[in-house]
Amino acid sequence: IDDQTREFLSNYPDKKVAILYGIEAHVRVKLTCFDLLESGYTVHVLADAVGSVREGDRVVALKGMEQAGAYIDRAESLVFELLRKDPPMKELFEVFRMDRSGQMWGF
Length: 107
Fold this sequence. Notes:
Blueprint: H1 3-10, E1 17-23, H2 25-38, E2 42-51, H3 55-68, E3 71-73, H4 75-82, H5 89-95, E4 96-98, E5 104-106
Parallel strand pairs: 1-2, 2-3
Antiparallel strand pairs: 4-5
Helix pairs in contact: 2-3
């Protein structure tokens, strides 16, 4: 994590959960995950929202992050988990739709 990100996170000392997504899962996402875990954060990596040029790199990166202590989730399931204490299911289903391939998208 760079200094700017550390400074940003220091403004929220009571927030210790991070949700990661992005490109280059085997480099940027993985290193960020390890930094956050070492800093005491609970880390959720969205498997359906990280990518690498080579699929094998993505798969190995996800496995490594999980072995290091991160939770590997799908975006839709994480949304429901985070809202489980007061699940506004009907409203949530209006926001999240599934296309024919099973990929989630919001609008």
